[in-house]
Design a protein that fits this description.
InterPro entries: ChyE-like, Class_I_gatase-like, GATASE. Keywords: Glutamine amidotransferase. Residues 51-186 form the Glutamine amidotransferase domain. Pfam families: GATase. By secondary structure, the protein is an alpha/beta fold. Helices cover 29% and strands 24% of the residues. It has six helices and eleven strands. Strands 2-1-3-4-11-10-9-6-7 form a nine-stranded mixed beta sheet, sandwiched between helices. It has a two-stranded antiparallel ribbon with strand order 5-8. The N and C termini lie far apart (53 Å).
Length: 251
């Protein structure tokens, strides 16, 4: 059997696929990683059965400084239109939201930095990827911008007190998440060194190697099975979310 081929879009050298890549490959996926802008995106998605888009330090609409972001949004829109399973993380989730008609701006509640919890919403309990997650999931936050409006028709899957739109699904199989599940303690510490003004927004003991090691062990326990389910989804072994029922108003 041929391994399912996933296109992995990496917008920033500082955010590699990390453990998420290990979880996807151990579940049988073949990863084609494109580090932008040095490596070009494919013109289309022929031959790919899934897409993963990672995070980065730029804004989702920062086309003036990063003109190739428009091509990323276009490809994510193509994937969603073709119902190619997509997992878009942090900046990736923001790019997916904008590509599909949502909005992203600088968060009015300030940056989210460090380990945190997000909670499942009602739609998540019947979602093929999110249903088996615990009610409160460990995640890693490191962002200034936030999704302020979901694309029309998108389902909200996870939320948090500061920013409501933490995870969503568009149509049957395009997923965006605001948080990180792919990091390592070393990556997070590197981000903290590069952005000390953000690191200062959390308590000093939060961003220590020891605490981050504990947090990432919890993230692995929760999100490794999630990554395996994503490979089952792209392989056709797991059915995508059901079509949304459109009901007519009562007379």
């Amino acid at each position: 059997m041929t391994a399912p081929k996933l296109l992995v879009i990496q917008p920033d050298e500082s955010d590699p696929i990390g453990p998420l890549g290990d979880w996807l490959t151990e579940a049988g996926a073949d990863l084609d990683i494109r580090l932008l802008p040095d490596q070009s995106l494919p013109a289309d998605l022929d031959g790919y059965v899934g897409v993963v888009c990672l995070g980065g330090g730029m804004g989702a609409t920062d086309d003036a400084a990063h003109p190739w972001l428009a091509d990323v949004r276009k490809l994510l829109s193509k994937a969603a239109s073709a119902r190619i399973p997509t997992l878009a993380i942090c900046l990736g989730g923001q790019l997916l939201a904008v590509a599909l008609g949502g909005s992203v701006v600088t968060g009015d509640q300030g940056p989210e930095v460090g380990p945190g919890l997000v909670s499942k919403k009602d739609a998540a309990w019947i979602d093929p990827l999110f249903a088996d997650l615990p009610l409160m999931q460990d995640v890693l936050q490191f962002h200034n911008d936030a999704i302020t409006r979901l694309p029309a028709g998108a389902e909200l899957l996870a939320s948090s007190p500061r920013y409501a739109y933490q995870a969503f699904r568009f149509d049957r199989c395009a997923y965006g998440v605001q948080f990180h599940i792919e990091t390592t303690p070393e990556v997070v510490l590197d981000w903290a060194r590069q952005s000390p003004e953000m690191a200062e927004l959390t308590r000093p003991e939060v961003l220590t190697p020891e605490n981050l090691a504990r947090v990432h062990a919890d993230i692995t326990e929760t999100w490794r099975p999630f990554a395996h389910r994503f490979v089952r989804l792209v392989s056709g072994d797991l059915a995508p979310a059901a079509e949304r029922q459109r009901t007519l108003p009562m007379a």
